[in-house]
Design goal:
Blueprint lengths: L1 H14 L8 H37 L2 E6 L2 E4 L10 E8 L7 E6 L7 E6 L5 E7 L8 E9 L4 E2 L3 E7 L3 H26 L2 H15 L6 H15 L25 H16 L30 H27 L1 H9 L2 H10 L3 H16 L3 H12 L8 H13 L1 H7 L4 H13 L3 H13 L2 E2 L2 E2 L2 E2 L4 H5 L8 H18 L4 H15 L2 E2 L4 H10 L3 H18 L18 H14 L2 H31 L2 H6 L5 H5 L1
Parallel strand pairs: 2-9, 12-13
Antiparallel strand pairs: 1-3, 3-6, 4-5, 4-7, 7-8, 7-9, 10-11
Helix pairs in contact: 3-8, 3-21, 4-8, 4-9, 5-6, 6-7, 7-8, 7-10, 10-11, 10-19, 11-12, 11-14, 12-13, 12-17, 14-15, 17-18, 18-19, 18-22, 19-20
């Protein structure tokens, strides 16, 4: 049994092997299996990581759009031409800066292109497309924006086009009939009511309109410049400060800006609205749609701030009335000034600083006539610290004073100009580089621009140059000083009125400047009235009002708190169509608001010079040319 015993021992050794052990072949296979599993695990982990990176790259190419207006009310869709544009706000990720974008619409089969534009550094654009029947239809229209090279598209937005019929025209007519009726009623009441009663009605009208109206672009400058001052950022010479574009500088003398800061502090204390940062005051859409910069700041309590900002304008207009009533009579001043629709519009609705500067200028003339020359210089200096043109009074008054009291006493009274000059220089210097601010200010006034572009605007013959695709000509830079010297010589040799000499200079400005904005006419109206020229007062009120009515969407003057989107609603479409007709009609733009106003300026200039000529001829010369009855001659 030895063999059996040996076999049993062998089997025993085999039976004694631990259960967890394997033979060498099995171990190699197991190791290979583990290696394969590890590789598979790594590969499976790698695939999601690679997919996530791809998704992250894809998600960085993001475009988001929003549409204005949500609904277009069209009487009938035009096939092409001048219509109402749909406005699409486009924001996009940083990797799409400088990319080419296409605004597209869905036609049932694909996405044809409506407009093409390039991305900018602020990652926001406005895209525009006229609403025409060759792509749009009544009902819902789908829009999107695509980055051409990257191949990524935005969300889709729905533009709803509604056939309004005569609804828009009727609404728009109702708006203008209401404006005309209120204007006519005020003029009528100024003629029949006792002065105190009408002053009460006028006060309620001016104050009531102020909070809920405003030219949105100009009102933005009224509050934003004061806010920037509170943030210790110079609004006078922003330089390359980002995101404060140079085109959004305060391009006027600095006196109003501290009041704007004070207004905001009062507003903030009442409304609990904090001071926004400098960065928040520049709406990114400014870079493609300048007039929409107001969208940067539209709190629900904005009417309170606008009301505070307009108080000096309203006070100035009533102050001018007080001076006019002493020179032309209270009733005439009520009707031709305080009830004047143009005066009400510029003062309470528009929101410009021209009434303040004009009040200082009128006060300066009034004081100079009373031979209070020192205070007259002070008023002229304060006017020039608000807007430049009242500075023209200083040399005119100086010559008149020299004629009366001599050179040295007159020069000593110029010391009254020191306070407004120091205030202006201090504001320019404390909040920025003094010399740089002065240079920017001088350039902005000497070469007027719009958003940094040299251009033509308003009621000037240079609209003809625009129609001819010719650059504007800043003739004032060449003729201004020689004409001022001639006026000073005339004022020294002849005893004309100060307002006559100032009118000559301002009419030369109107004839030679490439900007004659509607609010500039505010300067002239009281001067004509002081000369007893009521017709010219009416004429120089009517011309700018016609221009405003034809060149502006009236809803743009309504507070955005009440009407945010000026393109929304049936009446808005009619207003926009009106503007398109105006700017594409050379007869209106160049003829009615270019050639005709310039002819009026020239005739008015000749008329003022003629009045001076009649008044300044020596008495002896008049007697020579006048035949008297023999009995009078013998006497």
């Amino acid at each position: 049994m030895p063999g059996t015993q040996v076999g049993d021992q062998k089997d025993e050794k085999m039976s004694l092997r631990p259960s967890g052990t394997r033979n060498p072949g099995t171990t190699i296979a197991f190791k290979l299996l583990l290696l394969f599993g590890a590789l598979l695990l790594l590969f499976s982990l790698f695939l999601p990581a690679s997919s996530a990176t791809s998704q992250e790259q894809q998600s960085s190419c993001t475009i988001s759009i929003s549409r204005q207006p949500p609904t277009v009310y069209y009487p009938s869709l035009p096939s092409t031409g001048n219509g109402v544009a749909v406005v699409v706000g486009v924001s996009y990720s940083p990797d799409l800066v400088n990319s080419t974008f296409q605004l597209q619409y869905y036609n049932g089969l694909g996405w044809p292109t409506l407009a093409t534009f390039s991305g900018n550094s602020v990652q926001y654009n406005f895209a525009y497309a006229g609403v025409y029947s060759d792509w749009a239809h009544y009902g819902n229209n789908l829009l999107r924006v695509e980055a051409v090279q990257q191949g990524c598209a935005s969300n889709t937005e729905t533009l709803t086009v509604v056939q309004s019929g005569d609804q828009g025209a009727l609404q728009d007519a109702a708006i203008w009939i209401a404006i005309a009726s209120m204007s006519g009623l005020l003029i009528f009441l100024s003629r029949v009511l006792p002065t105190k009663w009408f002053l009460t009605i006028a006060g309620v009208t001016y104050l009531g309109l102020a909070p809920f109206t405003g030219q949105r672009y100009d009102v933005y400058f009224l509050y934003s410049s004061g806010i920037r001052l509170l943030d210790r950022v110079s609004p006078f010479s922003p330089g390359n400060l980002q995101p404060y574009p140079f085109a959004l500088k305060w391009a006027y003398p600095p006196l109003y800006v501290p009041y704007s800061s004070l207004s905001y502090l009062i507003y903030s204390a009442i409304s609990r609205v904090a001071i926004p940062s400098n960065a928040a005051l520049t709406f990114p859409g400014f870079y493609t749609s300048t007039y929409e910069v107001w969208e940067a700041f539209v709190p629900s309590s904005l009417p309170l701030l606008v009301f505070l900002l307009k108080i000096p304008m309203i006070a100035s207009t009533f102050g001018i009335f007080g001076i006019l009533s002493k020179s032309i009579g209270r009733r005439t001043a009520l009707t031709f000034w305080l009830a004047n629709p143009f005066v009400i519009f510029i003062t309470s609705v528009w929101g410009q600083i021209d009434p303040i500067a004009t009040a200082f200028a009128v006060a300066s003339i009034y004081l100079a006539k009373k031979e209070k020359f020192g205070p007259a210089y002070l008023m002229a200096g304060l006017g020039a610290a608000t807007k430049v043109w009242p500075a023209l009074l200083v040399p005119i008054i100086l010559v008149v004073q020299v004629r009366k009291v001599g050179l040295w006493p007159s020069l000593k009274e110029l010391a009254w100009l020191v306070p407004p000059a120091l205030i202006s220089l201090a504001l320019f210097g404390v909040y920025g580089n003094l010399l740089q601010s002065l240079f920017v200010f001088a350039y902005a006034r000497g070469v007027p621009t719009y958003a940094g572009e040299f251009s033509v605007n308003g009621l000037t013959w240079q609209q003809l140059l625009v129609a001819m695709h010719s650059p504007p000509i800043s003739i004032l830079l060449f003729v201004g000083l020689p004409v001022l010297i001639l006026v000073m010589v005339l004022a020294y040799k002849r005893q004309g009125s100060i307002e006559s000499y100032l009118l000559i200079m301002l009419l030369v400005v109107f004839l030679s400047y490439n900007y004659v904005n509607p609010q500039y006419f505010f300067w002239l109206v009281p001067l004509f009235l002081m000369l007893g020229k009521k017709f010219q007062g009416v004429l120089y009120s009517t011309l700018p009002m016609l221009y405003i009515a034809l060149s502006y969407n009236i809803l743009y003057f309504i507070s955005p708190v009440l009407v945010y989107d000026v393109y929304e609603g049936p009446a808005a479409v009619i207003e926009q169509l009106k503007i398109n007709v105006f700017y594409n009609s050379p007869l209106l733009l160049v003829g009615l608001f270019g050639i005709v106003p310039s002819a009026v300026y020239l005739l008015s200039l000749l008329d003022v010079l003629g009045v001076l000529g009649r008044k300044i001829r020596p008495a002896g010369e008049l007697l020579k040319n006048q035949r008297l009855p023999p009995s009078k001659e013998t006497v």
